Amino acid sequence: MNKKLISVVSVFWLFSQSAFAEMKQIDDSDLSEVTGQAGLTIDIEMGIEIGEFMYKDGGSIVMQGLRFGGMDALGVGTAYDADNTSDLNLFNNARVHVDVASAGEQFNWAWSEWTGGIPASNAGTNYLCRECVYSANDGDLIIHGSVTDIFEVSRSYQAVDFGIELDKFAIKDSSYVAGDDIVDNSGTSTTAQSTTILSNMKMEGYMGGFDWIIENNGNGFTNNIADSKIKINTFFEITDMEYDFNIVGIRYEGMKIHNHRGNLDYFNHEQNNTGSNAGTSEGFAQSNVHIYAVQDGVLRIGSAANVNGSVNPADYVDGIGLKTRFRGDMDIGHLSFGDTGRSIGEQYWTDMDFNTTMVLSAH
Q1: What are the backbone angles phi and psi of residue 217, rounded to the nearest 5°?
Q2: Is the pLDDT at 116 greater than 50, yes or no?
Q3: Which three-class secondary structure string do you get for the chain?
Q4: b vs e for 329-349, b when ≥16 Cβ sit within 10 Å of the residue's Cβ?
């Protein structure tokens, strides 16, 4: 046997013996103390920069110059710059809790701590937040967004600041080669016909927490909708946003999305609340989406032929279902036409509440 191989085997044998020497059998009582713990806690700092994302069908949809990081203290958007190591303003102070639930285990919804995080064991009617807890199925995956420290923003809530920028959103003809606007990969100058839909988008604000639940209700379907769904619930506030809506020649500035006016409830906690702060969204707009598989929903019409001229087998999964809801207020501080820069006035939208159901499938 080769001497080098003998040496490697000997080192590995010695290492394995020392490792085995530290292992010992765990009895049932010890194991019960190991299982059912609080899960994982992940603290996050990150910045993202994407030169271009392209979706190609016949022609293409492109998004160019996407940046995500912390809020820009000197202007709108993010100061994050991957090419400038002295200006890495990261999205930070974010904490994510990950749990795989046991049957009936209960979790506070994001920012139920605003109202004191009333435990589920409180069965009375005069508690601050009704339905502030989620009772899990056995095996549900629970991902809960939080903060690492109390971060005061001259108000009573905790939040994480963010900034987002997008240089251009456009459509291009079929001759466009991915990345040619960034670096000419084709060897020739880019001649693809292009129409800019939106450009110079900058926004900043605060993330007020989120819940991401992946249900464990099995692989079955009820009324052609999957029993197990992905459920995402987010609270956020956009404190400033601007962009050019190029295709129609409109400039927006001073846009805000929040929930400071009118109905201040967050929609899964809007009944049977008491107290001066009970049930309020603390200024955050709220967005909720359920994502699930759909069968016999688009391509199959009863037992007849589908729109493509064939009959699919029974229980054919043919789409992705999206059920969304949004609640909040919106302000538009500046709206101008063309390049005049002259605002036609301000707009204020209060108590917007949108419900939408969609099914996505290939055609």
Answers
A1: -110, 20
A2: no
A3: CCHHHHHHHHHHHHHHHHHHHCCCCCCHHHHHHHCCCCCEEEEEEECEEEEEEEEECCCEEEEEEEEEECECCCCCCECCCCCCHHHCCCEEEEEEEEEECCCCCEEECCCHHHHCCCCCCCCCCCCCCCCCEEECCCCCEEEEEEECCCCCCCCCCCCEEEEEEEEEEEEECCCCCCCCCCCCCCCCCCCCCEEEEEEEEEEEEEEEEEEEEECCCCCCEECCEECCCEEEEEEEEEEEEEEEEHHHCEEEEEEEEEECCCCCECCCCCCCCCCCCCCECCECEEEEEEEEEEECCCCCECCECCCCCCCCCCCCEEEEEEEEEEEEEEEEEEEEECCCCCCCCCEEEEEEEEEEEEEECCC
A4: bbbbbbbeeeeeeeeeeeeee
CA distance 289 to 230: 8
Query: 143 is written with which tokens?
Result: 């991902």
Mean pLDDT for the chain overall:
76
What span, in angstroms and rounded, lies between the C-alpha atoms of 143 and 100? 9
Over range 49-61, report the average pLDDT: 93
| Residue 222 tokens, joined | 């009820």
Report the Cα–Cα distance between both ends of the chain, in Å, rounded.
62
| pLDDT tens digits, 306-342 | 554 545 665 677 789 999 999 999 999 999 998 888 8
Query: Do residues 85 and 24 lie in contact, with contact meaning Cβ atoms separated by under 8 Å?
Result: no
Residue 152 identity (one-letter amino acid): E
C-alpha to C-alpha distance for 196 and 170, rounded to whole angstroms: 4
pLDDT of residue 209: 80
Residues 352, 326: contact at Cβ < 8 Å?
A: yes
Task: Yes or no: say if 297 and 318 are a contact pair by the CB < 8 Å rule.
Answer: yes
**Which tens digits make up the pLDDT trace of 177-220?**
888 888 755 555 567 899 999 999 999 998 878 889 999 999 99
**Those residues with Cβ within 8 angstroms of residue 210's Cβ, 6 or more apart along the chain or in another chain:** 110, 144, 145, 232, 233, 234, 235
Task: Find out whether 58 and 174 touch, Cβ atoms under 8 Å.
Answer: yes
Q: Does pLDDT of 8 surpass 60?
A: no
